[in-house]
Amino acid sequence: xxxxxxxxxxxxxxxxxxxxxxxxxxxxxxxxxxxxxxxxxxxxxxxxxxxxxxxxxxxxxxxxxxxxxxxxxxxxxxxxxxxxxxxxxxxxxxxxxxxxxxxxx
Length: 105
Hints:
mainly alpha; rod-shaped
């Protein structure tokens, strides 16, 4: 009877060791799953950040293009106004020169 009890105790102890080992394996597996889940979430976040960054870069480039076009238009208008003023001044000088010449005759 003692042998039977020893054998049952050994089996019980072995079962407990297996259960402890299984629990440890399950814990390790859960830790690995959580680790990979966190990596996946981080990768998704990184991808989302990259997408937002690309969108912001595109928006910046569009705004930059628009501003450069507007600046070019302002420069053109300024140049045209300067040319018109120069032409008007030249015409006025010519008119005054003719008047001075007529007065001197």
